[in-house]
Write a structure and sequence with these properties.
The longest helix has 17 residues. This protein is mainly beta. The N terminus and C terminus are likely disordered. The radius of gyration is 20 Å and the shape is globular. The chain contains three helices and 21 strands. The chain is 8% helix and 26% strand. The protein folds into two domains: 173 residues, Beta Barrel (Lipocalin); 133 residues, no CATH class. The strands form six sheets. A five-stranded antiparallel beta sheet has the order 1-5-4-3-2, with helices on one face. The chain has a four-stranded antiparallel beta sheet with strand order 6-7-8-9, with no helix packed on it. Strands 10-11-12-13 form a four-stranded antiparallel beta sheet, with no helix packed on it. 48% of the residues are buried.
């Protein structure tokens, strides 16, 4: 692919996203064919850190465009002088997936090897030929219609991609890896249970043989967490709790005479960012619980309403910054953490925490009313 990548990606992507916005839950997988020659899904490699860190020019491999979540490409084939000339080439209906009023279409599509991968609010995943819009394969999640742990609409914010697999986090708490070429299930793990208040709404992140995902449920009396799984097997590699327990850093920010910390919230709604040179993963957390009345949880309630940095290989705490302390109501990070640096620095940040503060800015936006 070349700089013309956006000519076939941007226009189909618009229609794929519009279709997903109208996207019914339907675990079966089937191949769907249409008239004409179809492109076969090319197997994505186990992307190197360099490949995932570079500004995207020949595909869109991660939810944020690159590991820094910058959502920027330097391509210039489409610009202010010709954008008005763009015209629809195709539009594909995603088989009516997620069309009921309870669903939302919030997914960022991924693109690799001329194939677009998009998920609907029903957690159904589609692989589309970027040239024709033909559906190459479909994965149907068949979510339990009785799931009651969803806060604000049934949705997914995207999928992950790497090492020949597409990764999808589901509202039933499952993390599923699909064969990139066929859509068949490579592995599936019950990452958390929706019966315990957990759902996965964020797009999983593939990095260095890991699949990293957070969990929603800050309004369901949960103690949220970030988990990393082995990309080949689905085996759990590490867990970081966003509400520290006894003996852990930050536990003293919660009442010591109650068990409020067990239900402290601090959900993760978005895909983390990674700095490969520092070996850190950055993510943002939501409001503490109970979110309607903070009288029972005196203290700073770490690590709610915070940006947190962990060792990406081990999940060990490195640093945090609490953006706001919430005593009542909700203030949740709805946008993903994004690493931005002066061009001369090169990475998200270099050196110690002190130099990281000088060299980079880890940003996240607080918005009320979401959990």
């Amino acid at each position: 692919m070349t700089r013309d990548f956006w000519h076939w990606f941007r226009r189909p992507l618009v229609h794929a996203c519009l279709a997903s916005a109208c996207c019914a839950a339907c675990v079966s997988v089937f191949a769907q064919t249409s008239a004409g020659t179809q492109r076969r899904s090319a197997k994505a490699p186990a992307f190197s850190a360099a490949a995932l860190s570079a500004p995207p020019t020949d595909g869109w491999f991660t939810n944020g465009g690159n590991l820094a979540n910058q959502r920027y490409s330097p391509l210039a084939s489409i610009n202010r002088t010709n954008v008005a000339g763009l015209k629809p080439k195709w539009r594909t209906s995603l088989n009516g997936s997620g069309t009921a009023s309870k669903y939302s279409g919030q997914a960022q599509a991924l693109a690799y090897g001329g194939v677009i991968y998009v998920v609907t609010g029903a957690d159904d995943v589609f692989a589309l030929d970027a040239e024709s819009g033909a559906i190459l394969w479909t994965y149907e999640a068949r979510l339990d219609e009785h799931i009651d742990a969803v806060c604000c609409g049934w949705l997914s914010r995207g999928v992950g991609l790497g090492d020949g697999r597409v990764y999808v986090g589901q509202l039933d708490g499952k993390l599923v890896a699909l064969d990139q070429r066929t859509g068949t299930v490579a592995w599936s793990t019950q990452a958390e249970r929706w019966e315990d208040g957990f759902t996965i709404t964020a797009a999983p992140l593939y990095y260095d043989g890991l699949v990293i995902t957070g969990f929603a449920g800050g309004d369901r009396a949960t103690r949220s967490r970030l988990k990393a799984f082995d990309a080949k097997s689905g085996k759990l590699r590490w867990t970081f709790y966003t509400i520290p327990g006894p003996g852990e850093r930050g536990h003293d920010s919660w009442p010591q005479d109650t068990e409020a910390w067990k239900y402290g919230g601090a959900a993760i709604w978005q895909t983390p960012a990674v700095d490969p040179q520092l070996g850190l993963v950055y993510f943002s957390t939501g409001n503490p619980g109970s979110y309607m009345n903070g009288a029972a949880r005196a203290g700073d309630n770490l690590f709610a309403n915070s940006i947190v940095a962990l060792d990406v290989r081990t999940g060990k705490y490195r640093w945090h910054f609490q953006e706001v302390h919430t005593t009542s109501g909700t203030t949740t990070r709805r946008t993903p953490s994004c690493c931005s640096t002066p061009r001369s620095r090169g990475a998200c940040a270099r050196g110690s925490r002190k130099s990281a503060r000088r060299a980079s800015r880890i940003s996240s936006t607080a918005r009320p009313g979401s959990r």
